Amino acid sequence: MMLIRVMNDMTQIKPNNAVLLNQWSSKWAFILAATGAAVGLGNIWRFPYMAGSHGGSAFVVLYLIFVLILGLPIMIAEILIGRRARKNPVDALITLAKQSKRSKYWGLLGWWGALALLLVLSFYSVVSGWSIAYLIKSISGQFNGLNADQVNHVWHQFLSNPWRLLGWHTLFMALTIGVIIRGVHEGLEKATQFMMPALYLILLALVIYAACVGNFAKAARFLFDFNINTITSSVVIAAMGHAFFTLALGAGAMLTYGAYVPKNVNIAQTVFIVAALDVLVAILAGFAIFPLVFAHHLSPSAGPGLMFVALPIAFADIPGGAFVGGLFFLLLLFAAWTSSINLAEPLVITLQYRLKVKRKTAAVLVGVFAWSIGIGSLLSFNLWKDVKFFHTYTVFDLATNIPTNIILPIGGLGFALFAGWVMKKSATRSELNSKLYPAWRFLIRYIAPAGIFIVFITPFL
Ligand code: PHE
């Protein structure tokens, strides 16, 4: 993708040159890259299981509200901060704060985001590794003719072996860091361009299949039949965290891609397109998975294994299922790959410029660090299965929920305050350059900060 092309160019930037000069070649190149970053495991794997374990519609409706009132304005904020400064997140914040005669300690917000990215990358690689394994299981016909119980058994067997999980985790991390270090050859670059649309198509086909053989009506009720009584503070927090996670916000990841956006691109318009595509993929994934969950009497609150059990039941059943399943996991892998590159890239350029090391050294450091943390996540499915914090949370639960539900939203609050209160009005107005500016400014100064704050205090209300 274009993102990979930029990555190739970036390898030529000298570490001490803090200004990033490369730019996306067009509005569409940027939309493609930003969608590649946003659409990933969050939409297809995480959204259904989070909705499933947080009461379905209560989670879905809140998530949609948070995308609208927090996600859209904060994505605009991050991109305009990036484009204004054209630097890595830490330097971007320091530079713009100085321009407004404010403290250079705003740079700490960039490091806060980096912490989130590192933690997310660590478990992201573990789960993406599962997708590679399932790609191979599918095409080798291992699901052919299995019933729901047998598919479930395959999943639990798979998780029980830490070495195997470690192997897949290592492979995926190497794929991510490999792209960051070397860039990618023409072939893969072209392939990725049609992988994303192909993923949308196969998801649509799975929705049609699920509608024909599954319990579609129950799925629709589960996802959209809103009942205000099912809302609890943990649902509100999880829905907000997921909105940040799925849109890649609150950590400086979008800021980093924003640094390459050409001056003439209309930021507001592109942000609407990216968010709409992102939500669409999540809803499609929900409608591909839940009709099967209900038809086969699986538990919607099965947790992280939901997609890895529900979809192979379909692949076991349909003619040519091995191929369809293989294709699905391949496309999922590409979606995860483009997102993990977006997770790693801001970390790498931040280390590169702040520590003044080579891009390659920074990339290896990031990879090794995230890989090591990821081992904790993968062990929580086997050797550390019984290690529970507060009697409930495994290491994996903490590794996924702390960055998503706490670090990203606090980062988002920081970016909202920065764009709304620290940057000069003239600066944000000239970057956004849209009729929507007054509405955005109101949302980013008041609604987004207040919204995040209120969500955080709901457990104490
Ligand atoms: N948005 C990605 C997904 O939904 C994950 C991500 C989070 C990517 C934060 C970059 C930054 O899978």
What does this structure look like?
The protein has 461 residues and is an all-alpha fold. It has helices spanning 2-10, 27-38, 41-53, 57-85, 89-99, 107-139, 148-160, 162-182, 186-213, 216-224, 233-246, 253-258, 267-295, 306-317, 321-354, 359-379, 395-422, 425-432, 437-457. α2 runs parallel beside α13 (267-295) and α7 packs across α14. The longest helix has 34 residues, at 321-354. The chain is globular and about 65 Å long. Phenylalanine (PHE) binds at residues 37-38, 40-43, 120, 245-246, 248, 251, 253, 339, 342-343. Phenylalanine binds next to α2, α3, α11 and α15.
Bound molecules: phenylalanine
Instruction: Write down the Rg.
Output: 21 Å
Estimated helix fraction: over 70%
Mean pLDDT: 90
- Helix/strand-derived category reads mainly alpha
Shape: globular
Number of strands: 0
- Number of H- or I-type helical stretches: 19
Percent of residues in β-strands? under 5%
Question: Distance between the terminal alpha carbons, to the nearest Å?
Answer: 47 Å
**Main β-sheet: number of strands, strand sense, barrel status?**
none
Query: Which oligomeric form is depicted?
Result: single chain
Order of helices and strands: HHHHHHHHHHHHHHHHHHH
Low-pLDDT regions: 1-21
